[in-house]
Known about the structure:
By secondary structure, this protein is of the alpha/beta class.
Amino acid sequence: MERIAVFPGSFDPITLGHQDIIERALPLFDKIIVAIGHNASKKYMFTLEQRIEFLEKTFASHDKVEVDTYKGLTVDYVMSKNAQFILRGLRNPADFEFEKAIAHTNRAMTNKEIETVFLLTSSGKSYISSSIVRDVMRNGGDYTMLVPDTVRYPF
């Protein structure tokens, strides 16, 4: 059976932390679907099309990485893709507590069919978050050491 993982997020924008998790997870799975979720209550800095482009360009040389979008519950999307795993990155203890609750809920909702796999971010990237990147961008700071080369702002 093909081992498929979904790495869900808003990727607004993708950061070096996201890239690190995906690249380190490649040996673990046959395919990783980087899935951009839609949250109606969230105001995005980048359009969906821009976020797709950033991701596709970042992982253009990785055949095992697919970029997709979805609405609704992540666990429903994961099951619709016949994936067995949800991939999540952890930066700190607060991330762990939040993600643990979601992972337990997902397992309960899928009758233990979906397993969440956590990877710790590399030590030099644990401080990076999309919200910090957006703040640096909005205020004219040098964001280039926080994101892959494929992310540029303003256009």
